[in-house]
Design brief:
two-stranded antiparallel sheet; mainly alpha; about 10% strand
Length: about 140
Amino acid sequence: MSENRREDPEDAQATPVEPPLDATAPHGRHEESGALTSHDAHKLGRTRAASTWTGLVIGIVVAILLLIFILQNLDSVTFELFAWEFSLPAGISLLLAAIAGALIMALAGGVRIIQIRRVAKRAASGNPPPDANPAG
């Protein structure tokens, strides 16, 4: 009964997992490379395609919920910005505000990534960063 016990992937050691013995199965090239480890068997379930598919499904669900939200909030709202005055449906205006916020956060994150890459490139080349002054 303990043979059927499933180990937690974090607790699993890299112990070989023997493939089932089947005399009738054809021998493929993967069988010549040796037994799979439990770590390798766990990695087979997560691929880039699976992650992309999951992200796509989540994106579709969010888009459907967003569409429902916009369609339920079609009441017109008047906005004043400096000298301009315009009316938009409430759902659309909240969507535009969320997009603007996401773009601002993406811009801030992009600037930070560029800063980190510059520091890493300088550290790899052996040059100290400009603010690291050993004399001061």
